[in-house]
Amino acid sequence: MRVLFVCLGNICRSPTAEGVFRRELEAAGLAHRVEVDSCGIGDWHVGKAPDPRSAAAARRRGVDLSELRARQLAAEDFSRFDYLLAMDHDNLAAIRAQCPDGCGAHIGLFLDFAGHVDRPVPDPYYGGERGFEEVLDLIEAASRGLVEEIALRLEGQRR
Ligand code: 4NP
């Protein structure tokens, strides 16, 4: 199973989702069964490490983002990943616009997995410190929901 998190710059929200979701997979004993990556719609930050404010907020919750580097969404991602999960509606529209016909991946908003309907992870880039904490709260909730769904799918594959 392969999961790709997508935001605008790939330096705040989607690398946070990548790190937190990995931590939740490890806690569930599923890290070896699921591949996780993140990317951005834009190319401004390609090759850069996560924003220091995101890295610090994640570190406070036991998640290390220091090895991650930004990259841009690529055509191959649509055949490689089972889930392409957008942080907000603009990201989602951009993914859909680039999605080839017949692509079988699940494409949707990440917070659907936190039981929120149609809700974005707000972009924290131009805001204050509190925005980064809110991003983590939302991403932790959705990560737990996504681990539950994937655990059920993997269980189904074994039967
Ligand atoms: P992200 O946040 O999409 O969560 O990585 C942003 C990072 C950079 C910019 C916008 C959003 N930017 O405009 O450079």
UniProtKB/TrEMBL annotation:
Key word Glycoprotein present: no
Domain Phosphotyrosine protein phosphatase I: 1-149
Domain of life (superkingdom): Bacteria
GO MF terms held by the record: protein tyrosine phosphatase activity
SMART domains: LMWPc (SM00226)
Active-site residue numbers: C7, R13, D123
Keywords of this entry: Hydrolase, Protein phosphatase
Positions of transmembrane segments: none
EC number: 3.1.3.48
InterPro entries: LMW_PTPase, Ptyr_pPase, Ptyr_pPase_sf, Tyr_phospatase_low_mol_wt
Enzyme class per UniProt: hydrolase
Similarity comment: family membership: Belongs to the low molecular weight phosphotyrosine protein phosphatase family.
Protein known as: protein-tyrosine-phosphatase
Species in which this protein is naturally found: Billgrantia tianxiuensis
Native organism taxonomy: Bacteria, Pseudomonadati, Pseudomonadota, Gammaproteobacteria, Oceanospirillales
